[in-house]
Specification:
Strand content: 15-25%
Helix content: 55-70%
Strand order of the largest sheet: 1-2-3-4-5-6
Structural class: alpha+beta
Number of strands: 6
Largest sheet: 6 strands, antiparallel
Number of helices: 10
Number of domains: 2
Order of helices and strands: HHHHEEEEEEHHHHHH
């Protein structure tokens, strides 16, 4: 039995790492286009972009590793089934249930690794990535400015830029709400950004524009219009210096639980945090569910065309994640409890796997 176990695990190794590499590269390509644009068109340092790119890998492993498990098991047992090796094993008195032992062991090991990945590695990579992008915004403020949208990244200022070309901005609108309820409006035909050394601020040089200053007497209907040829304004990039708040994806399970308990004391809605908490847990066991599903899929299809079985595996994985996203939506809308609804994809696919396995071994 040890020989068969080692044989099956050895057969799974190559398809697993091959599919894991291909899937990770495919997912990375979508982010590579955006990062390349930052280097080519906005002059962002290759060192920073390289670090951001590397930090994408552990984040993507949370998706690609379970799918690679499913594909590797499907490819391995499809080959064994197509070459009649499973028939030969059964003829030698080896029950199909025994072939599940190495698969179950593989699923448990990978699920334990996914627990560590979702608990420690992915939150760290996600937070570190956001920190690098935040620092990049200070060093090169135009890097992440997008035309045609309202930009809320600056403290007490809202920007709207109609056009950006070669790190220069055109038709700039700046809205600055005042404490007395008035809003100061500034318009400029052109503008340029420059970081303030040693500070979490940037200086904005405005050219050919005007500013509508609120009436100091408190009349909201009257404004003073000030025209200028060149005007400098300093903007705070963030409300907190040298620190960014952690989003739910950047938190560990312990941090999520602590934040949930803290907010519940003030009767604050914690549905988003609870959903993320149980998503991390349930997705950690997706590898175990997928390897159980891959075994009967491969045996039932019994095709020599491995590409066809790979397509079936990818479709099954896609259905799992779509169902998970639907459950997340229901949880966020408070239609169902996160502690229950987030387990639905795992339980559903586990039941399907057990039914198919029973059909195979009977």
């Amino acid at each position: 039995m040890r020989i068969i176990r080692n044989y099956i695990l050895t057969e799974c190794i190559l398809p697993f790492f091959l599919s894991l590499g291909i899937l990770t590269c495919v997912f990375l390509l979508g982010n590579l286009v955006q990062l390349t644009n930052l280097v080519v068109n906005k002059g962002v340092s290759l060192t920073i972009i390289g670090r951001v790119f590397v930090l994408y890998i552990p984040v993507l492993l949370g998706y690609t590793l379970p799918i690679a498990c499913l594909i590797s098991v499907v490819i391995t047992f499809s080959r064994l089934s197509a070459d009649n090796e499973i028939v030969a094993m059964r003829a030698c008195g080896i029950h199909l249930n025994k072939l599940l032992y190495p698969v179950i062991s593989l699923g448990i090991i990978l699920s334990l690794f996914l627990i560590i990945l979702n608990e420690k590695i992915i939150p760290y990579a996600h937070y570190k990535q956001r920190s690098l992008l935040k620092n990049l915004g200070v060093q090169n403020p135009t890097a992440f400015l997008e035309p045609g949208i309202f930009i809320h990244a600056f403290n007490n200022s809202i920007l709207f830029i109609h056009k950006i070309h070669d790190n220069k901005m055109y038709n700039i609108n700046i809205y600055q709400p005042q404490k007395d309820g008035h809003t100061r409006t500034i318009f400029a035909e052109r503008g340029e950004f420059a970081p303030v050394p040693g500070k979490d601020q940037i200086k904005l040089k405005l050219i050919n524009g005007c500013a509508d200053e609120p009436n100091i007497n408190g009349n909201k209907g009257n404004f003073y219009k000030l025209n200028f040829n060149t005007y400098f304004i300093t903007l705070d990039l963030t409300k907190k210096k040298n620190k960014i708040d952690k989003k739910p994806k950047s938190m560990t399970l312990k941090e999520l639980r602590k934040e949930i308990n803290k907010l519940e004391m003030f009767l604050v809605d914690t549905s988003q945090l609870r959903t993320e908490y149980y998503r991390k847990i349930t997705w950690s066991f997706s590898a175990f569910v997928f390897v159980l599903l891959g075994f009967p899929l491969a045996v039932i299809t019994n095709k020599r065309e491995r590409s066809a079985n790979v397509v079936v595996a990818v479709i099954c994985a896609l259905c799992y994640y779509l169902l998970s996203l639907g459950c997340q939506a229901l949880s966020l809308q408070k239609i169902a409890s996160p502690a229950l609804i987030m387990w639905v994809p795992n339980v559903t696919f586990l039941i399907i796997s057990l039914i198919l396995i029973r059909k195979c071994v009977s």
